[in-house]
Amino acid sequence: MIEAPADRLKRLKMRSWRRGTKEMDLILGPFADARIGSLGEAELTLYDRLLGENDQDLYLWVTGQADAPTPLAQMIAMIARHAGTAPAR
Q1: Integer Cα distance of 72 and 20 in angstroms
Q2: How far is CA 78 from CA 4, 12, 38, in A?
Q3: Model pTM greater than 0.85?
């Protein structure tokens, strides 16, 4: 069954706000509210994949405490910039 675009965005937003940790709720929820409506198909698919990752790993990647896996690195960087956790360069 093919998921309707509006249903997909609603699901992604819900999964962003209802994580396993409050820290990731507060990072991913606002990002999803502000940005996922403007993401392309490939980016939405990647974001959906990212939501399947462990919160402890996501937190380390978004805060720059650990390197994100290459396939997720650009999406993690986008989320980190939005959250204000991207390291200063």
Answers
A1: 19
A2: 25, 16, 13
A3: yes
CA 42, 25, 5, 54 torsion: positive or negative?
A: positive
What is the spatial distance between Cα 46 and Cα 49, in angstroms, rounded to a whole number? 5
The answer to whether residues 46 and 75 touch, using CB atoms and an 8 Å cutoff, is yes
Domains located in the chain, CATH noted: 5-83 (1.10.150.250)
- Cα–Cα distance between 4 and 87 in angstroms, integer? 36
* 53 and 24 Cβ atoms separated by less than 8 Å: no
For residue range 20-69, what is the model confidence (pLDDT) as tens digits?
A: 899 999 999 999 999 999 999 999 999 999 999 999 999 999 999 999 99
Give the DSSP letter string of 12-32.
HHHHHHS-SSHHHHHHHHHHH
